[in-house]
Amino acid sequence: MTVEMKLTREQFDEVMVPNYAPSPVIPVKGEGSRVWDQQGTEFIDFAGGIAVTALGHCHPALVTALKEQGEKLWHLSNVMTNEPALALATKLVNATFADKVFFANSGAEANEAALKLARRYAFDKYGEGKDQIIAFDKAFHGRTFFTVSVGGQATYSDGFGPKPQGITHIPYNDIAALEATMSDSTCAIMIEPLQGEGGIISPEPEFLSKVRELADKYNALVIFDEVQTGVGRTGDLYAYMGTDVTPDILTTAKAIGGGFPLAAMLTTNEIAAHFKVGTHGSTYGGNPLACAVGNAVIDIVNTPEVLDGVKQREQLFRDGLNAINDKYHVFSQIRGKGLLLGGVLNEKYQGRSRDFLLASIDNGLMTLVAGANVVRFAPSLIIPEADIAEGLKRFEAAVAQIVTA
């Protein structure tokens, strides 16, 4: 007879590497924008697995796609291609500026591929010496050693030995710094079209235009990291579509798999040609299971109904958060776009974003932080209005808990 193992939060400390500090809650079931833990406690999900579960938990179309593909073909090496990968790549090319797609498993891997491609393109076309990558303070691009070095948060990259060279960080939205830093040695500018981990910071339109202008002037590539902003999060399929700037390379992950690990790098024919056979690869990139789910995600998200719905839901969140703030005075502003929003804590509550996250959990709500001073919200793109209302009610209770403590 098999004895069922009782799994607890304490076991995390016994068997897991301690680079995470998870809450005591262990979710076991999700449906739509609601999640239940081991004790049956219900939570409203305003976190979306950090902007991943864009269609909520266990969306029927995604479950069906996974089940059907699971009975056909799970994995091949990239010695062969597969139908789900071909279909998804075609959809992405048809829907964006891109001509070519490279599949990976995570945002970090997609960004690693983008950075390697930018360096290889510059080397092939212009020779040695054109290798500078410009990135931005507070940026986040992943946890590989290359991407964490390009990311603008030294806390994540210090202490691992010598870092990859040729990377320069400047302040986000600082045109003067950009002009002073760009040169003929610049091969790429990597930028989030809305900074996520750095605090939900939107770009000034003139800043993005200057990025594109200077990149063209110095024959550098523009890489948009759309790992968090992509797949409908801002109300456009990709955030660049809501700007006047088109990148040369775009990375997408998180929401593209709806919770199944999947990522992609998109680029043009001219640039893609520099990843010749054997130049780069991925064992699982383009996995049939992942791509089958990705096809279902894109089919649903890339519709006027969902994308327009994101903008409508954004207003509901803004109105609700502003009403709470009028009562309790904890935020200096609500910023962001679409359903990637941040409540910026005012001077009285500086450094306490995690307290708001924990208080939310106490009140049956899942939220996020974006640094020590921003409470982040990244719910399902199709979260029902009733769940928004109930979640905001629970968030108000969490805010009241902190304010009156």
From TrEMBL:
Its cofactor is pyridoxal 5'-phosphate. It is an enzyme of class 2 (transferase). It is found in: Cytoplasm. Its main location: cytoplasm. Pyridoxal 5'-phosphate binds at G107, A108, F140, D225, E226, V227, Q228, T283. GO terms for molecular function: identical protein binding; N2-acetyl-L-ornithine:2-oxoglutarate 5-aminotransferase activity; pyridoxal phosphate binding. Homodimer. This is Acetylornithine aminotransferase. It comes from Shewanella mangrovi.
